Amino acid sequence: RVDFGNDVFVGTLDYTPDGEAGTTGTFGSQLVVDGETGVLYVLDAGQVFVVDPAGPTVTPLALERSAESLAIDAARRRLFVALATDGSGAVVTALDLDDLTAGETVVLGNQIHRMVVDPDSGRLFANVRVSTSWTTRVYALESDLSEVPWVLELAADPVATGSSSHAWPAVGGGRLVVASPATLDGGQSRLDVYALP
């Protein structure tokens, strides 16, 4: 058990070969794992914690503002952290996974809901709120955060529920799966599949 001080902790993963995996413990609002080192990055209450399971040790990551989302590309040794707006827009920062030094940054919209890396291309997909409505836009970014000329507009139902109008559970195989929530007026949740650039 690793205690973060705010009732969030990371438990151990118990599994056997060819068996079922199960967790003991509770995770923060988002968790990504470096598949090469086993280090976990946990986002909770706007902070990112680096968890070394060998210790286990927990180290808060020093950030200039509150974090909103995480994505990892272990193959290319990149951790992407979305930072809340300071009035000039929300920022995605790329960190080197080996020493956690900050690299490239890009400003995207008002709020970054979720990010995911396509394991095939290494591209980062960021779901960004672009206005005061629930309208969001998915940006495709290269690993160095340069923009790919591909943007997906997602106009949400005006009675959509939740703080994030769209998220996605999967990317890969040349496709992005976008999950849209149920609406207050009884509209059904849905999954839409889009071809990636």
Characterise this structure.
It is a single chain. With about 200 residues, this protein is mainly β. It folds into two domains: about 1-60, no CATH class; about 65-160, Thrombin, subunit H. About 0% of the residues lie in helices and about 50% in strands. It contains no helices and 19 strands. It has strands at about 1-5, 10, 15, 20-25, 30-35, 40-45, 45-50, 55-60, 65-75, 80-85, 90-95, 100-105, 110-115, 125-130, 135-140, 145-155, 165-170, 175-180, 190-195. Strands 5-6-7-8 form a four-stranded antiparallel β-sheet, with no helix packed on it. Strand 11 (about 90-95) and strand 12 (about 100-105) form a beta hairpin.
Key features of this structure:
four-stranded antiparallel sheet, 197 residues, Thrombin, subunit H, globular, 0% helix, disordered N terminus, mainly beta
Portion in helices: under 10%
| SSE ordering | EEEEEEEEEEEEEEEEEEE
Q: Distance N terminus to C terminus? A: 41 Å
Query: Based on CA inertia axes, which overall geometry fits?
Result: globular
What Rg, in angstroms, do the CA atoms define? 17 Å
The biggest sheet amounts to: 4 strands, antiparallel
Q: Given the helix and strand composition, which structural class is it?
A: mainly beta
The count of β-strands is 19
Estimate the strand proportion: over 45%
Mean pLDDT over all positions: 76
The CATH first-level class of the largest domain comes to Mainly Beta
Give me the side-by-side strand order of the main sheet. Answer: 5-6-7-8
CATH topology of the largest domain: Thrombin, subunit H
The CATH architecture of the largest domain is: Beta Barrel
Work out the count of structural domains: 2
Count of individual helical segments: 0
Low-confidence runs: 1-28
